[in-house]
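INFO batch 0412 | record 1 of 1 | parsing
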Amino acid sequence: MIVLHIYIIGAAIAYIIGSFNPALLISNIQKKDIRSHGSGNLGASNATILLGWKSGFTVAILDILKAFIPIMLTRILLSQYALLPYIVATCVILGHIFPFYLRFKGGKGFATYMGAILGLSFIAFVVIGLIFLIVSFFSDYIVMGTFTVITLFPVYLAVFTRNISFVSVILIASVVIFFKHTENISKIKNKEEIGIRAAFSGKFKLK
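INFO prediction complete | emitting tokens
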């Protein structure tokens, strides 16, 4: 019963932490509402396109840290609960995607997912991160790299941990992120998706 309570409390705290949205904070500071432009998402990609790469980079770092820090604290302070870091990881991601105070409309969760990978496995973060950069660069679309990452990390866990519980919990986050990005595939087919090179050109930046 105590273990169950620990998991529930950990999940709730992680969700609340995840619901903090750096993209909303930075766009409010700059007095620009990115929810009304671009993809409308409160995430690093849309912030980069509409606010510039410096703001987008800041959002990405903060989104990564809000997953990385609670996961590492969980691993250090509550190491006896092996499944808890994975629950925290997924709940932080879900909090980012479905923040309660924004009518459950947040970002798409990729940067936070990368923060979760960093907190759970540094080696996986480096290897999968490099693959992400390669796939995204050659395809010119971050979404292609995103799909690669959310597929590879559960596979990595299955191979190296052989723990079905770890894999199952992370798969929840992977599946949610996949469905949040399906609209991007439609935009690519219709040639409406903004590519990486176009985004960094700054021509879509809000004035």
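INFO post-check: The mean pLDDT is 90.
INFO record closed
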